[in-house]
Amino acid sequence: MPQQPSCTIKLPVFEGPFDLLFHLVKKAELDIWSVSIASITEQYLAYLKSMRELNLDIASEFLVMAATLLRLKSKMLLPRLPRTGEEEEEDEEALFQINSPEELFERLEEYRRFKEAAGFLGKLAEEQQKIYLRSAGSKIVIIPQKQMQQTYYTYWEGAQLLGEIINRIEAAAAARSIPPVIDLLDDLPVSDRSAYICHLLERSGSTLPLSAFLKQKGLWELLVTFISLLELTRLRKVILLQERHFGPILVRLAKENSRGTRTTQSAD
Amino acid sequence: MEREQHKALIEAILFLKEEPVRAAQLAAVLEIPIGEVRSLLSELQQEFVSQQRGLRIFEIAGGYQMGTAAELAPYIEKAFGEKESGSLSPAALETLAIIAYKQPLTRVEIEAVRGVRCEHILDNLLKRKLICISGRKEGPGRPLIYKTTPDFLKFFGLKSLDELPPLEQ
User: Fold this and answer.
1) Host domain of residue B126
2) Residues 6 or more apart from A166 whose CB is under 8 A from it?
3) In a designed cystine with A14, which of A19, A181, A185, B144 is the match (CB 3.0 to 4.6 A)?
4) Per residue in B64-111, pLDDT tens?
5) Low-confidence residues of chain A, pLDDT below 70?
6) Are B115 and A18 within 8 A, CB to CB?
7) How many other CB atoms are found less than 10 A from the CB of residue A153?
8) A116 lies within 8 A of chain B by CB
9) Is B85 within a domain?
10) Domains, chain A, ranges and CATH?
């Protein structure tokens, strides 16, 4: 087990409101059933307050629990009215349907049991981590027909492509202090560029790496190329593909468009 | 075939199989009663330990599978890197514990115990194949219900779900 350096301040991280409540009960060294709602509410709110002071985000569940606690507390302070029907239960937040301290403590007890079970599972996993099962080390040894696994990117999924282009545009804009603004999409000679891209692809035998198209230096050129590629992808004239994560992106002519396909089929 | 040959064959099958092999499958191949298979397996297991071999036979996820001896872990890690299975966050462990003991159940039922929403955790556990969707619950909205998978048993080195200790009352 690695030791934490002694100077780090470690705030306990709570998995949720039950986790925090459970921690507070444990800190007070109390049995869950002997806790007073008033004192636990106070401590709970104090903790939320310190979280806010530290500018930590407080998940909404914690706030819902705070409201639940306050409602329980106020219920106990007020004289009990005869029940007026079910109206109260209807506007209850779905996450915590807790209407009495007993219910709260029951839920806490249940949470505690599973938290302990989780600890047990954690220990098992740690033990199992030391065992390398027969399958663990060897991926697939025998591949019946070696086939490249390809991920196809459609119009919407070229996130990496977009990232690459944006980086270049930003660098270019920064270098020349030109704001990258397009006034009219019609101004872009997209159809010319698209035709040129297809021409290049056909000449090279259908596939080229994306980087081959990004050699133009000008910002304008780059933009036009990018939009043309997107347009061609949308029209399914080219396919953008990547053989592995973070690998180079390839641009390939879609089958039906590529003239002179070399694959010959044996005639019957 | 003789007893020793039976054992050798079991060893060979377990070596080749990359997933747990059920005793019944071995019994079918060897054409001997399942009880006999189990006794051969336990003999083999003991031999691997007493001869201080690098391999062990583990009873896991309803079958038997070969793996490396736990005490070799630091050295194997050095040679092959850490196991890619990775560890689980406390939140993921909590969620798994709830599913393991109360399965099959819906997301809302899990969230009721934890007091926190856990869509992301469920997605993650599904991706890691530690849980799977076992169907839909009858009733309003027909929500999905979740259960643990054989990979769950493998991950925690359990023979079956019965091996989980009873929840403390």
Assistant:
1) 90-163
2) none
3) A19
4) 999 999 999 888 888 877 776 667 888 999 999 999 999 999 999 999
5) 1-12, 30-32, 79-96, 135-164, 173, 175-188, 216-218, 246, 256-268
6) yes
7) 18
8) yes
9) no
10) 17-78+95-128 (no CATH), 151-257 (1.10.10.580)
